[in-house]
């Protein structure tokens, strides 16, 4: 009989978060056996999957990048291939690529309170042959993000089957799509749409961004001149820390400004757009939302590339609703027809908790919507489990790295206290609030599939890196973590271990 492999920690996902998590576990929990299970066949996650024109970060790379790996390229707002190269270089430099098991998808995860271990059913595909096996681990850490990478949000459009052109979804961009000299309509107004429009406008005959309602847009420089100067004067790691700190504080200050003084924030953003676009009527109609800044995520356009495409006449914006597709394009509620050869549906993503893993305890499914999240990472009712959820108002990696360091603290805390398992438990009832507190449609559609945040202390998911850094790295772990001593659980017979 083949022994079941056992690991100390299993990380799910080899993207930006998973690579950072593995680095932290190897450096802060030396001696622990760690593996990364990756469902796809490459490192990179989002930055390997999405291939649409112009794909880039909407956060600066000094904060989206790892604090332990300086960003050395010129662009502060980087393109997708550069970010993918950065993630893979980091994995190779620190030996993290050797921990990854590709084409290995977790299809079931059950925690046993008797043995204080997770049993993972994993499905692996090799040369077209699919097989299943079992791995056990002491701690399970989901770094798969919260998007469904197999299926995007796909609203039903009347008459789409009659359209003679091509309908394209950004999440599954065809490698052979030729849109040069063609008329393109991009449906949407979020980060994907504002990226696609100027990129496609470089070769398309014309690109129209069709939006139901405006989105707040912030013009940001593609390069950080101050960062360039600092990097000339200081060693790489020192410069990276200084620039990172500067950008964290600026981002936090701007977010707080928007939330505390929304009227003033609206004026700042509209004036900046009008200054660049030089068309007050267009700003009023197409770039002034009814909601306040940061009620939904703000879209960044580096070097005003979207506005420049509009000013050159290579692109345009239409604010209206789709009535129906026609053979030659899209007819709007107003009666206007947008002729198109290609329609891109940048209508958003679908959220999916824990990469699709439905965790259970002792064979019973845990209803996630009834649980609370502790310090933005661990979840009531799920022992020895953590999930990586980034910020909505700042770079994903800022919270991802804090969460990974928290996981390391928890693992070391368990060793010091002699605990086989720990689970966060509130000392009194909590008021229930959505985990992701944004009004965006893609969040509202999936809110019931995720655990909740509470109304106080470590049960609140704050959007404040400075406060989170203090509480995560120094906060008392014993107050809300209920531990089970190793002596109180039954360990199975020794199994194969990999270090």
Automatic annotation (TrEMBL):
GO molecular function terms listed in the Swiss-Prot or TrEMBL record: flavin adenine dinucleotide binding; N,N-dimethylaniline monooxygenase activity; NADP binding
Family, per entry: Belongs to the FAD-binding monooxygenase family.
SUPFAM superfamilies, alphabetized: FAD/NAD(P)-binding domain
Organism, as annotated: Saccharothrix carnea
Top-level taxon: Bacteria
InterPro entries: FAD-binding_MO, FAD/NAD-bd_sf, Flavin_mOase-like
Keyword Oxidoreductase: yes
Keywords: FAD, Flavoprotein, Monooxygenase, NADP, Oxidoreductase
Cofactor: FAD
Protein's name according to its UniProt entry: Cation diffusion facilitator CzcD-associated flavoprotein CzcO
